[in-house]
Amino acid sequence: MRNIHRLGLVLALFAGAMVSPAFAAGERGPAAPALEDQKVVVDGRVFASWEDYVKSDYFRTAGKRCGTPEPSTFFGLPEGSSGADCSFGSTNPDPIYDPGMTYQVPVVVHILENAAGTQGTVADSFVYSQIDVLNEDFQAIAGSLGAPGTDAAIHFVMADEDPLTGLQTSGITRSNNDTWYNDGGAYYNTLAWDTNNFMNIYTNQAGGNLGYVPDLPQGGLAGSDSDRVVILWTAFGRNSSLSPYDLGRTATHEVGHYMGLYHTFNSGCGTATTPGCYTTGDRICDTASESTPYFGCGSPRSTCGSVDPRENYMDYSDDICMNQFSAEQSRRIRCSIENYRSNLFSPIEPDQIFLDGFESGNTSAWDATGGSAAGTLLSVTNGAAIEGNDGLQATFTATDTDSDYVVDDTLGGLGRYRVRFWIDPTNLTMDTNKRFKILTLFSGTPDNYRLATLVLRYNGGDYFLRAKAHDDPASAGWNQIDWVQLDNAGPNLVEIDWKQSTSAGSPNGYLRLWLNSRPIGEATNINNDERSADFVRFGVVGGLDVNSVGSVYFDGFESRNSLYIGN
Length: 567
Fold this sequence. Notes:
There is one protein chain. This protein has helices at residues 50-54, 57-61, 124-139, 178-181, 187-191, 249-258, 327-340; strands at 40-42, 45-47, 102-113, 154-158, 172-176, 199-204, 211-212, 229-232, 346-348, 352-356, 368-370, 378-381, 391-396, 404-408, 416-429, 434-443, 449-459, 462-470, 478-480, 484-485, 492-499, 509-515, 518-526, 535-542, 549-560. The protein is mainly beta. Helix 3 (124-139) crosses helix 6.
């Protein structure tokens, strides 16, 4: 990817580095192996659990919240480089770096477990939730915890193609190795996917830190095998086990470093006013100066004459208190990725059709509701939340056979439609082999023709999905993807991609299905050029049988024109 801007600011720079207090011996030493399933050792000290460790005085005094070294002023860029606008030494927050086109960044997550598989396990669902958190925080998505921040227009997706084999992939790798789990052995030389083109995240013991990156991209590390983001496995993902660092903000913080940001307290107070605040402290003027990191989530404080920025992702606050990058941090992120990671991202045009995580507490984001029992089976509740605070709940009694759905009618004649959402049917029981439609895509003219549909089935204690798409004309049959079993252990992430054929006699339409970001199957050679997509119904769309009792939960509905959503 070529640089987007040609920049005028020229600085002469020299190299230097400063060791973080987190590395007492001058280098990153791996944490010792776990003594038992729950006990851990960090720097020779024994703790009953990771939670006890992060609540200890040692965790704070040793600087283990983040192990990213704090660089000193760097002077290594050639004269005239546009990267001088976001160098180690200074920031030029020119409005040309205000977000415009969204930058899409593919991610591969490497899960490093101990050899026995008793430590380091991270479920796929936590990986997907972590990508969601990154998007919420780097895009300040409305209704999310990151909404108060600045939209940097960085969109993260799981890698969908293995660069070595060319095969479709979930973007997740797993390894069992005691040395790698303990953050040793240069595992990245073996595991890294091309770091110029993928952001590589590793989960393990992270050297006793909650996370780290080895250096900011300005230091010359970008593109090497060791260029990476490392996160303590118990702090990875939304609702992880490590309170109060359990909302995925450790990864947000470390990816901030990966994209060129300093800690808010870097080098102490620095200069409080322009232009000096662009060359001291965190090299940002719209984040208040701070002399030491803020821990916890208590009362505001002032260490440099103004209220410390505890809400900033680059401080050390508890996850629940973090909610923003500043506008100038967003500009530095954009400058850094354009000039130091120019092959990492792909600019994408706005592609989103509709998004509703039900955080409004109701279904008001939708254009309509419908069905023979409209408004009686569906509700938005806290108990249905799969991500965020609320979700959509469909609740049945044994006599219900009606339909109840929400409608998005803004599609306007699309030739391609992609949709993703969470589903958790584990609180529902049905007679064996009974089923009902949970989503149907329609053409509005002339006859509300069903283009594609998703069906949920119950059989012997397990839940299954089938996706199918219609051929032209109306009398033609369905093209079906075989039934796929849902994961009974928890919520499932579903995505479908429907495409219209290009013309009569060219049956190149298709329907593709992903489950938990893994490609499951596709129906191809569909002859469906006569009708395009106008609206979609979602919920209990039809076909419900008696003796269906309990609830199905839905969340995180997102639709697009074409781009893979894939988190």
